[in-house]
Design goal:
Blueprint lengths: L20 E2 L3 H4 L6 E6 L3 H4 L4 H7 L2 E6 L9 H16 L3 E7 L2 E7 L8 E6 H9 L4 E2 H8 L3 H13 L3 E4 L2 E4 L2 E2 L8 H7 L5 E2 L14
Parallel strand pairs: 4-10, 6-11
Antiparallel strand pairs: 1-3, 2-3, 4-5, 5-6, 7-9, 8-9
Helix pairs in contact: 5-6, 5-7
Length: 217
Amino acid sequence: MAEMMPKLHHLRPPSIGPLGVHRFSPYQRDPRAYGIEIAGSAAYYRLLYDVSPSALVEIAYDFDYRYQDGRSTDDYVPVCIEAIERWRAAHAAGASLVSRRGPGFVHIRDARDPGAGTVTDLLLEGEEADVYLACDDGARLAAICRQTGCSTSTVLGVLDKLLAEGLVFREGDHFLGLAVPARPRPAASASDEAEAQAPARTRLTLLPVAAARSPTV
């Protein structure tokens, strides 16, 4: 997951903390399905109630747990925490990924790496635009094919390009477009000023680019 986080820098960064196992949650009702086992009530219950451990389990709402495979979160969580800290810094610096729709095309402006000072413009047209727009709500592959009228091989070919550019997130058979639709702004923002000072933009040619047109909001 940490390697995917740079593609999400334009979104609000998450908080992070240890997994909590609470009564009535799926983790408490079926812990083995999630690779954990209940080790007893949370430790602080022993300071509140002078009863046996089995009785504490009956009255507790929070539970201690351990992983069935004996893993230690120290082996992989620090990498995730570092990635989230970079995410927070980029988001605070104005990272953005904005899309604008026009007649038959989608214009995407990628400024997810404020530290690099670069902004990339991409223009999706035809099948590429149709497939990207069909990923608006995390659609499955079959639904994208139905909505666009394209063959499975065509859709997969476009999705491969979009995934390579980090414009779409994939989880299993679900695909989600990552750009945030542009909204009219009454005044220039700090991110606008930073963009104006950025080096000249580059236009990627990975996807078809037509004659220049002004994207509409």
